[in-house]
Amino acid sequence: MTDHLDIAMFFAFVLVVLMGFPVAFSITGIAVIFAYFGWLVGEMNISLLGALGQRVFGLISNQVLIAIPVFILMGAILEKSKVAETLLHTMGRLFGGVRGGLGLSVVCVGALLAASTGIVGATVVAMGLIALPAMLRAGYRTSFASGIVCTAGTLGQIIPPSTLLIILSDVMSNAFQQAQYLQGKFVVEALSVGQYFAAALIPGFVLVLLYATYIVLRSSIFPEDAPSFFEEARPTLHEVMTAILPPFGLIIAVLGSILAGVATPTEAASVGAIGALILASFVQGVNRWIIGTGTVSLVLVFVMSGYFPVRLQRDSLEPGSVILGLFYIGLVAAAFVAVIVALRVSVYSGLLREAANSTMTMTSMIFVTILAASFFSLVFIGLGGEERVMGILERLPGGATGALAFTMIFVFVLGFFLDFVEIAVIVLPLVVPQLLLMGHDPIWLGILIAINLQTSFLTPPFGFSLFYLRGAAPREVATGDIYRGVFPFIILQILGIVSVWMFPSLSTWLPDAMF
Long-range contact list for 25-30, CB < 8 A, 24+ apart? Predict the structure, then answer.
């Protein structure tokens, strides 16, 4: 019995989570109990816990994970500023006259919000409050409408920037370095967040295309499930551009700076947070002239300084360089004034306080889970769990392909019960190094796992998107309707995984070309 404490530890953790205990406390409590029980029966060297301090320090000094709270702040500001509501309302009016058009508008908005906020809960709740009632008024089948809203909201986990990709890139990079050490390489290659952001773009849009194709086909075959609906007049071109261009510009600024190599993810997140602050103030209609001027100044100084750089610290400067340098200083000053005005508007409206509270809550939840999982994995390794996992993968039929198939199925099943953070920081560090040693590409493998983890938001009974929508949906929407509605989209998720598996270039071409 004591030879299987590692297995008992894992299943005890799942059982405690299913009983409703808070995840972080469950992870830590189970780790403490099994660490000392393993020590008492002679199955664990308790001195291993001395490495916990190093793991904590490694977590708080991790430069990659610093980007998480800043991206969350960016998304929280956009969510509180009603940008999502404006987008949903405008796109609904634009596509409402087409059969299945409201469903297509929800998917399009979900993709745009995913690329600008990356927060699943905020997106699902916003669409559950705004889009779902409109779809029900239009005569959409309740389960169909619920499934569209739930699934479109989860795009924030696969389309960058997303907290899932940031956490996953850190886990995959560590596993990749560990695998190289085990191969005897002492000059190791590291992986970056930018590579995973680039790798996830095409698969993310493949999923959007799969969702849209399904909506169009179902609307054509069963027109009563998604009728056309004219609630208001179609929006003008100006209204459409006003709703789409600001968040699209923010996406270009954030992702473009990362993929172009101009900024690190943390620096790009800071740009995104400032951009979201300016956008939120602009949407509120306060001091638009000042904020608009500052935004244009920011864009000008960014573009012009790339083509016409000026180094004012040089001893000899031509008059043209001095004039251009002064012009840049003026642009920066105008941008600084706009940021101050936007900050003042956000503070007095209460938006910044709400966004900061939301950011602190989500950041605390993520980091305390990562910290607890680090403790859990340390004890699990001490009980021999790492060797057991490696042995299982090596003995599976089918070699590298069989091991990967087993891992994907195992992660998919875990998604029914656990959050993506627990799976990413507890399970993946144990299995990924062995998969990489078997020859799998780390970028391709990471995207396969990312789509799989995204599916965990949709799988009952503990899919988070299901809970978010249950809290925001009208009373006439039953929980059974939500569960039935997401089932076809879970099949589409699996089809997306198969597509990336069969065509690895979907995930590897763009990062190879850019990095």
Answer: 25/372, 27/369, 27/372, 27/373, 27/375, 27/376, 27/422, 27/426, 28/372, 28/375, 28/376, 30/376
Q: Which of 410, 280, 293 is nearest to 355 (CA)?
A: 280
CA distances from 305 to 318, 329, 447, 503 (A): 17, 11, 35, 40
The closest of 74, 465, 104 to 247, measured between CA atoms, is: 74
Under a CB-based contact definition with an 8 Å cutoff, are residues 202 and 507 in contact?
yes
Q: Per-residue pLDDT tens for 21-79?
A: 777 788 888 888 888 888 888 878 887 777 778 777 877 777 777 888 888 888 778 77
Question: Which pair of tokens denotes residue 430?
Answer: 């144990």
Q: What is the DSSP letter of 415?
A: T
* String of DSSP letters for 308-328: S---TTSSS--HHHHHHHHHH
Q: How far apart are CA 218 and CA 223, in angstroms?
A: 7
Burial class (CB in 10 A: 0-12, 13-18, 19+), 439: exposed
